[in-house]
């Protein structure tokens, strides 16, 4: 016989028992936008500095051993051969402690470089996690949920690359919560339809792509018709110049292209408009 499912009132009164980390972890993993964690940037920097100092001391020890092996009247040690130095205190120091510390230091340093290279988190995504905490007041211990307030130290584990146009549209809560984007997440055991709304990233991306495609098509067709109804080269050049500037702004705003890529696309568009101009003159 299956255990009786607690009522919604019971769950809300004892979120720590019926929700807790099992449901919170499920919520964070349900979408990459929500998978926000602390980077511990200051603490990581301190670890790097400590490792750096450890290696500096080992470097000094190695330098002292080199000086002892090179002093006049000392033992005949071949300083130009690793093989001849095998098994010595210097060789053991170099291949042992120095190697391990350098490996630890450099691996950790490269990892920190990757973490620091991640883009800033959109405020709406941080607010989504904060809203979850507000809707599930007792689910997570207050000291443990306080990490979400460390805005400057937060990272998204898998950030999404979004065009400036989409980021602008998503600033609007009405756009983000439009019913057209809603999806049911029956795979989530702890999904609370009263407090949680999930949207389809694919639907939003398709809408943005369709919008950009429609505007781009209009940018190709509109000057063709306009140039057909104007007279004079100066007026035609003014129209072409306006459309070229508008197209450059569109490419920069509606795509993630680099500046030189945007310039190349604009140059191709300019060549097309010049063909239109020559056809009109003929």
Automatic annotation (TrEMBL):
Keyword entries, A-Z: Membrane, Transmembrane, Transmembrane helix
Transmembrane segments: 206-227, 234-256, 262-280
Alphabetical list of InterPro entries matching this protein: DUF6594
Record flagged with keyword Lipid metabolism: no
Domain DUF6594, first and last residues per copy: 21-274
Keyword Membrane: yes
Superkingdom of source: Eukaryota
Name this protein carries in UniProt: DUF6594 domain-containing protein
């Amino acid at each position: 016989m299956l255990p009786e499912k607690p009522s919604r009132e019971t769950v809300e009164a004892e979120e720590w028992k019926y929700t807790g980390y099992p449901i919170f972890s499920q919520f964070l993993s349900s979408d990459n936008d929500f998978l926000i964690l602390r980077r511990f940037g200051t603490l990581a920097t301190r670890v790097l500095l400590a490792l750096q100092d450890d290696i500096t001391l080992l470097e000094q020890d190695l330098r002292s051993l080199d000086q002892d092996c090179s002093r006049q009247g000392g033992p005949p040690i071949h300083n130009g051969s690793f093989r001849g130095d095998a098994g010595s205190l210097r060789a053991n120091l170099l291949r042992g402690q120095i190697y391990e510390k350098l490996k630890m230091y450099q691996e950790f340093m490269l990892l920190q470089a990757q973490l620091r290279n991640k883009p800033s988190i959109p405020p709406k995504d941080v607010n989504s996690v904060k809203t979850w905490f507000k809707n599930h007041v007792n689910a997570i211990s207050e000291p443990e949920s306080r990490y979400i307030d460390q805005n400057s130290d937060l990272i998204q584990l898998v950030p999404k690359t979004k065009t400036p146009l989409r980021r602008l549209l998503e600033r609007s809560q009405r756009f983000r919560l439009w019913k057209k984007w809603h999806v049911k997440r029956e795979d989530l055991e702890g999904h609370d339809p009263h407090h949680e709304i999930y949207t389809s990233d694919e639907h939003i991306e398709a809408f943005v792509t369709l919008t950009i495609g429609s505007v781009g098509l209009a940018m190709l067709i509109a000057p063709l018709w306009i140039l057909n109804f104007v007279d004079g080269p100066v007026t035609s050049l003014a129209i072409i110049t306006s459309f070229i500037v508008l197209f450059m702004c569109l490419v920069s705003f509606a795509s993630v292209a680099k500046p030189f890529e945007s310039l190349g696309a604009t140059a191709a568009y300019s060549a097309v408009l010049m063909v239109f101009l020559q056809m009109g003159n003929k």
